[in-house]
Design a protein that fits this description.
Number of strands: 18
Distance between the termini: 19 Å
Structural class: alpha/beta
CATH architecture: Alpha-Beta Barrel
Largest sheet: 10 strands, mixed
CATH superfamily: Glycosidases
Number of domains: 1
CATH class: Alpha Beta
Length: 374
């Protein structure tokens, strides 16, 4: 029997303290810090967002990771794609949750990795602080020896029976392939190392790209598939429709007099956004992976500089999921992959986990749509 889709949910492991975040942002900083201090920026703006069933969790707790897996499994999600950080020379960050999942064997829920290969700067976690933006840790590409070290660091995960595969190839996404000058050589080297270490068919490499125009370039570089960043399709819509909301921001000038500066917030109704986030012609191709989004609101990190999809509802999300299912329906079962962005990106308003307004309604919407469609 043919399956409807293989939904893989992107998973952020940022929800636990680390020494580096303590140094950069203050003792105990996690993603929850930005989530908790968020404010509504206009009438009807859904902020702050408060978690329900799982609470303000700490991913060092195995009970939390198990509860997440149970919810995701219930929703019909095949597995999590954990964001993975390797900055070169063995430097990693927020790796503890995934490491413990691999080493403990729990939860018994499929997983794969996406390499978030970008430098960390202040603006990643506080885009309002433009005056003091600085490099926190640099993403480095150090050549074959470092590539080899990177591979063997992850080999036990790739060999794990839970690791998600496509045609027997471990799924591995690269977030910024355009920043990696020698990505084609990296792909060849890792595929050779895979075959030498029991992964006979090599990897299923996926390029996350900002524009479909780059599709052929990355397929020719050795990627098996591409995923087009769905929000990258929004700016053209905004430019065409001028669908901005305006907000008056009051400031004090150097003479102590108040004045009003108009600030255009990048706000798109979710009902309109779901007409743009997918592209039937592009996403229906066998080696293009469509991405669905329950919502997006970057304002906890970015304030007035945020992009916001406004008034998302579980029913509209069901429509969005159905559109994605339509994109993959004619693909081979192994390639009926849909990325779900995201499972738990709370500071981007981009999550499936229950909150105090909608509870499990988004989870139920995904479950019912995967089971019954319309």
């Amino acid at each position: 029997m043919s399956i409807k889709a293989r939904v893989i949910a992107i998973y952020l492991p940022q929800f636990h303290p680390i020494a580096e975040n303590d140094e950069w942002w203050g003792k105990g900083f996690t993603e929850w810090t930005n989530v908790g201090k968020a404010k509504p920026l206009f009438k009807g703006h859904y902020q702050p967002r408060v978690p329900a069933d799982l609470g303000y969790y700490d991913l060092r707790l195995p009970e939390v990771r198990s509860a997440q897996a149970e919810l995701a499994k219930y929703a019909g999600i095949e597995g999590f794609m954990y964001w993975h950080y390797w900055f070169g020379e063995g430097r990693r960050l927020i790796e503890r949750p995934f490491t413990e999942v691999v080493e403990s064997g729990s939860p018994d829920f499929p997983f794969c990795l996406g390499w978030a290969n970008e430098s960390w700067e202040n603006k990643l976690w506080n885009a309002n602080d433009t005056k003091h933006n600085k490099l926190l840790i640099e993403q480095k590409y150090l050549g074959e020896e470092d590539n080899k070290k990177h591979f063997f660091h992850l080999l036990s995960a790739f060999q794990d029976k839970r690791y998600i595969r496509v045609n027997n190839r471990p799924f591995f996404l690269i977030y910024k392939p355009e920043k990696f000058k020698d990505v084609g050589l990296f792909i060849k080297q890792w595929n050779n190392l895979a075959k030498q270490n029991g992964l006979a068919d090599g990897f299923y490499f996926v390029a996350h790209i900002g524009n479909f125009a780059d599709y052929h370039k990355f397929i020719e570089a050795g990627f098996n598939a591409v995923e087009v960043y769905p929000l990258g399709r929004i700016p053209a819509y905004l430019k065409k429709t001028r669908s901005f909301f305006s907000k008056a921001i009051y400031k004090i000038d150097q003479y102590g007099k108040s004045f009003t500066k108009r600030k255009k917030l990048n706000i798109v109704p979710y009902e309109k956004a779901i007409e743009i986030l997918l592209n039937k012609e592009e996403d229906s191709q066998e080696n293009v992976i469509p991405t669905i989004m329950p919502n997006w609101d970057h304002s906890p990190r970015s304030g007035n500089n945020a992009w916001i999809l406004h008034n998302s509802t579980p029913d509209l999300f069901k429509k969005h999921v159905n559109d994605a299912l339509d994109c993959v329906k004619n693909k081979p079962d192994e390639n009926k992959i849909i990325l779900l962005k995201s499972w738990n990106e709370w500071a981007e308003g981009n999550y499936m986990e229950p909150d105090i307004v909608f509870g499990k309604q988004y989870i139920e919407a995904l479950k019912k749509t995967l089971e019954f469609g319309d």
